[in-house]
Amino acid sequence: MEIKILRMLDHKNVIRFYGNFQDPIAFHLVLELMEGGNLLDNIVRRKRYTEEDARGICKQMFEAVEYCHFHKVVHRDVKPENFLISVQGHSTPKIKLGDFGFATFMFIEDSLEKGPGTPNYVAPEILRAQKYGTVGSQYSIAVTCTYRCSWTHISNSYSVTAIFIYSEGYAVDMWSLGVCIYQLLRGSLPFRDSNLRNLARQICKQEIKCHDEYWRTMSPLAKNFISLLLERNPKERLTAKEALIHPWMTRTGKNVHLSDTMENLRIYNVKRKLRVAVFTLIAINKFMLFGFQRNVALKGLND
Predict the structure, then answer these.
(1) What is the pLDDT of residues 7-51, one digit of tens each?
(2) Which of 92, 122, 145, 253 could bond to 51 as cystine, CB 3.0-4.6 Å?
(3) Taking the model in full, what pTM does it have?
(4) Helix, strand, coil: what percent of the chain each, to 5?
């Protein structure tokens, strides 16, 4: 499925697929070289990081996901680590979405039931084991949208005229993008717990802790934007096309250095890399133990 999807996609913000081959050991994909590493590594290397920088990053993220949804592809594992930087060192990096291992097509009604993905970024409908692949039809809409943030109690409105393709299946990616934006602006995850049961409860109940001291440098539009993406009801969640015309995406953001966010992202990135290293070491040890036990068993049979 991953190869089929990658062959079909061709967008400036989606990693390019060149081919595949197989040797006696493994099956290999030949993908575009991304010299800049992943998105988090790029951000923590910067000397200055503002809300306007985050807006530029998010615009590319939403354009990648909107393109996938337009071609009826649901990624199902959207997170900062899966957004890669094509060239290292640029002030405005070119971001591309990669890792389509969990991606699938949205061709038939209720086509998506299983819930792959990374726990902290998974949508509540997946945790509730609901079918979330209902395919809708294309429609145009001209409407004045009024939204109210449940955290800040700020109301605002804006008018849009656009064409949308509604599907609850695509909404799982939009929830994940909401988590990503929260993380890029705050530096930490909105839902976090070492216990997976507690984490699932937080996500399903939308238990986001948003203290004023953490958001003193954040614009009201950014807070409202995140609340519209982290909407428990997938039918009311923003689509990628709606997100791209939201006021926070189209207006100039604050140019204040997000020092607390940078520090939080650095700490998170170090912990993430340590966790990956530990899991890799455990996997290697299990593989070596399996090989040793297999050799012992084969020797016993030969004897």
Answers:
(1) 999 999 999 999 999 988 889 999 999 988 899 999 998 989 998
(2) 253
(3) 0.80
(4) 45, 15, 35
